[in-house]
Fold these 4 entries.
Entry 1:
Amino acid sequence: MLGEYYEFVGLALFVLLASLPAWPALFFLRGWVHACYDPARRPAAGRRLMLAAALGGVVYLGAYIWGFHVEPNGPELSRIDLKGPFDPPLRILHVSDLHLEPDQSPRDQWVVDRARELAPDLILLTGDLNQVNSRDTVPLANLLSQLKAPLGVFTCIGADDVTSLEKAAPNVTILKNKAVTIKHGGKTIALAGLYPSGPHAPVYAEMAGADYKIVLNHYPDCAEEAARHEADLYLCGHTHGGQVRLPLWGAVYTYAATGKRFEAGRCQLGRTTVYTSRGIGMVPPPAPQVRFLCRPEMGLFTIGAAQ
C-alpha cells in the first residue's frame, strides 16, 4: 500500500520538513500577540520574534541557494565495480538524462571533460539527451560529437526526437529496440536498447550466446523483465533520483511506474545488476529547476574478474 502512494507520503514529509524553520517564528509570534496587552513584555517578545524570523529566513535562503544554484551545478562521478569475464576489465561510462538546453550549462562541459579524461572503452547513454519536446540539434551536436570511445557510443530512446538525434550525432549508434554485439578482451558483449514497451522477446533472442549481456532502457520499468532474460547489467535513468530527496526517505517523486523500487543507484536482481542514474539535467520548466540531496551523476563501471 505504501508503495502505491509513496508520492503522497513523500509530499507530506516534504511539507513537514520544509515548514520546520518557520515553527519557532510562529511560536514567538503567538507570544508577541499575547505581549501586545502587556507593554512591559512587548519589547522582549518582539526581539525574540525578529530573531526567530531572521534565523528561519537564513535557513530558507540557504536552502534556496543550495537547491537552485549550487547542487544542480555540482555533478559527481560514481564509480561502480562489478565482476565479469573481462581481462583487461571493461570500462563503461554511463550518461543519462542530459536534457540539453540551447544555452550550455557547466554540467554539459563537465560531461565532455570527464569523458575525455577517463577514456572509457564504451560510452552508453540512456535517453532524454535533448530537453523534452526540443528539436534543436545544436546542443546535441556540440556535446555528442565530442563523446568518443574505442568500442563506440550507444544510446536507447527516451523522450528523444530520433530524427534530430540522428542528424546531430552520426557518431552515436541508436539502438531502436534491437541488439548488437561487440567484443572486448576476446569476450562477446551483447548490447540491447529497448523501447519503453514491447515486444522485447526478439531483442533478447538476439542476445543469446553472448559472454556478457547489457540492456539499456530509459526507464527502470523493464528491469525485472531483463533479469528474467538473464541480463548481466541493466542501465536506465528517467527518475533523476527524484531531484529532491529527503533524509531517510529518498525521492519525493520518481516519475516512474516502479515507484521507489529503482529510484536511484544500484539494485541486484539475481545475476542482473540494475543501475538507475540520477542523470545530469533536470525536468523542463515550468517544473522547478532544483536538486536537493540529489547531485547530478555520471557513472563509471569497471567490469572484470578481479572486481
Entry 2:
Amino acid sequence: MSPVSVSTLICLVTFCCLGGCARIPQPVTYSSTEQQKMQATHHWDVLANDVANQVNKTLLLHDYISDPVFVRATCGSDNAACTPGETSQFNEGFRDLLITQLVRFGVPTSAEENPKAIVVNYKVQVVYHRDNRQAARPPGILTALTTAISVLRHAPGEVQAIAAAGVLDMMNSATDDAGQYEIIITTSMIANNKYLFRTSDIYYINDLDFWHYQNNAETREIQITNR
C-alpha cells in the first residue's frame, strides 16, 4: 500500500471519529460487563441455593430463627399468587428447588400458607427485545492486538495494519449474538407487611426456551424496541 493510500485511510478514520460531533451528544453503550445465561435446570438450582442462603441469613439477622416461611409463586405483583394453571415450568420447578434448599439450610418451611408464616414470594418477567442484539466487546481489542504483533515482528506495512484495525474496532465493537429474550427473577420476603429481603436477578435465556418462563394464563412479556 502506498503512502498516499495510508494517509487516505487515516483521514477516513479521523472523519468517522469526528463526523458525528455536531450539536448533540453521541450515543454510547455501557462499559463491557457480563451477564449469566440460564440454559439448564441446574442453573435454577444454583439460583435457588443462593436465594435460600440469603433468606437464611436475613432470618438470622432479624431474629426469626424459629418462624416458619412459606414459598409462594406470584404473577403480576408480590401479593398476587399465581392461580392454578397460570404458572410456568420455571415457577413450579423453582418453587420445589427453593423449598429443598431452605430445608437443607435448616429453615423451618411451611407446607401450607398460614398467618404465622413469613412469606417468600418470587416472580419471573420475560423481557422480549424485538431488535437483533449483540453483546458488546470492549473497544480497542483489535487495535491493541495488532499493535502488539507489529511491534514484535516489525513487519512491513504495520501502519496500514494498525489503521485497518482501528476501522474494524469502530465498525465491529460488538459481535456476539445475545438473543431476543431475557428474564428478571425477583424474590422477596415479607413479614408484617414489611420487606425483610428483596433481590432481582437478570439472565439471558435461549430464545427457544422462553416458554419455560412464560406464564400460561396470559402474556406478561415486556417488549423493548428501539425507535
Entry 3:
Amino acid sequence: MTIGTDTSPERLAVLLRLLDDDSPPVRASVENALSAFGGDVSELLSESEVPLGEAELELLSLLLLPARRERLRREWVVPAGGAAAVLDDWELFEALLRSLSDYLHDGVTMRQPLGDGLDLLAEELEFVASEDGAAGLNRVLFESGRFAARQGDEDDPDNYDLAHVLAGNPSNAVGLGILFLLIARRLDIDVDGLMLPQSFLCRYHDEGNVLLSEPHMKGRRVLTEDLAHRMRRYPREVRMIATRAATPGELLVRVVEELATAWSVRGETEDAELMEELLATLVKAPF
C-alpha cells in the first residue's frame, strides 16, 4: 500500500477497512498512513459509513497514538526560563493544557475542544458568578455534584484530560482545582489555588471573608484552623509552597509530574518518557 499524506474521508475509509488485517506489513503501513491525520480522526469518523466495533475503535486509537505524541512534542513550546517563565501567563498555561488534553484524547470520539468547553461553561455560569461570586461557582460546580472526584484511581491520566472532565467525567483534586481556576478567570473572579500533598484547595473572598474549599470533596469548606493543623504535618519546604497561591508554571509542573508517574506505574514507558521530556523543559534535572 502506498503511503501518502491524503487525509480525505475516502482515504480514511480505505484505512478503516484494513484494520482487521493484522499482518505486520499491512498493520505498519496503516499506522504510517494514519500519522497524516495528526492523531485524531473523530470528526471524519462520525461521518464515515464504515462500521467499527469496540475492539476496532480501540485498535484505531492505539494506531493514532504515535501521531498524538508527536503533535504534543511540536505544540509544547515553553519559554527558555521554563516554569518560572510561565509565572503569570495563564493563556500559555491553558494552551499547554489543551495540548495535553488533545494528547490524552482517544482520537476517535467526538467532543468539544478544551477552550470551547470552558467558554460555554463560563457563559452558562455568568449569572451565578455575578450574583454570588466564587462561592456560587463552588456551589454549582462541586457542591451540586456536577463535577466529581474520581474514586479509587486518583492517578488515572484521564484526570488531566480537562476536555474529558468538562464532558462530565471525574477528575482528581488537582484537575478539579484547575478547572475552578480557569472558569473563575474567564469570569474575572479572583480565586487562588493552594497545592497540598494529595489535595488542592481553592481560596477566595466572600463578603470580606477568606474562604477555602476542596473541589474534590464536593467543594466542602475548609476552616483556616483546619488548614493550619494540616500544615503542621508537612515539612517546612512543603508549607512554604502550600500557603501561597500556585503559579501557572507550578501547576503545570505538578500536572506533568503526576502524568509521568501515572504512565510509569502503568508500565507505559514511552508515554512516561515523553512526560519526562516535557518536564525537562519546565525544571532543571533532577526533578
Entry 4:
Amino acid sequence: MSEPTANSLPAALPAVPLTIEGAWVLHLMYRIDRGKWNALTNLSRRDLLREFADDLRQTQSREDGQTAVYAMVGKGDLMIICFRESLAALQEAQRDFLRNSLAGYLTPVADYTSVIELGLYESSVKTFRALEEKGLAPHGELWQAAVQETLERQAEAMAPRLYPRLPESQYVCFYPMDRLRGEAKNWYTVPIEERARMMHEHGLVGRRYAGTVKQIITGSIGLDDWEWGVDLFSDDPVVFKKLIYEMRFDEVSAVYAKFGKFYVGVRCAPAELEERLLG
C-alpha cells in the first residue's frame, strides 16, 4: 500500500472552537467591616439592611436584569450575583449597589466579570469538516458566512441557556478556572477534534447531576484574571463536592484544569437579610 501524499492527508481544522454568548454576569464578594459595624446600634444595623432589602426588591422587580444575594460561608459575608444584558448594565448594577448605605460598611473580598458562554466543540468540528469538504478556505468570505449561519441557528436554539433565570436554589458555589498552558501540558496545542472528545466526556459527568445541580458556565478570557467562571446552584450543597470530585477524574480536568478559589453561600431573599446577617 502506498504512503499517503501530503495533499491526501486531512488538513488541520481551525484551532478555535465556535462559541455563543449571552447574559453578562458580575460576582461581588464582601466582608463586613466589623469595626464600623459593631460601632453601630442594633437599630442602625437593621435600618441599613432594610434599606438594602428595599433596593434589592426593586432590582428584582425589573425586567432588564436579575440580582441575587447570598450570605457567604468562609471567605466573606455577602455575595451578590448580577445577570444583565450588557457590560454597561453590569457597571450600572455595581454603581447602584455602591450608592447603598450598606456599602460603606463592607470591604471587598473578590469580584468577577464574565459572560455566559456555550462552547460549541462538536458543532465546530462538524461545521469545519463540512466546509472543508466543500473546498472552502478557512476564514474566507463564504466560510465566515457559513459559520455565522451556524452561530445564529445555535443561539436561537439555545436562547434559554444563554439568558437563563437566576436559579432560586438555596445554595451557590462559584469558582474560576483555567486550562493549562504549561510546557508539558498545553490545552491550546491539542487538536480541536481531541479537545472536542474530551469535552464531550467531561459533559457526560455533569449531565448525570442535571436533576440536582444547575450549572452556568461563563467565559472571562480578556475580561478577568481567569479563563472561565463556574456557578453551581443546588438545594443540597453536598452535591457540589460530589460533582466536582467526580469531574476531576475525567481527562480534561485531571490533566488540563487549574482551579481558583471556591466561594459558597446561602441564598437570601430580601426578607431574610436581617436574619442571615444579624441573627
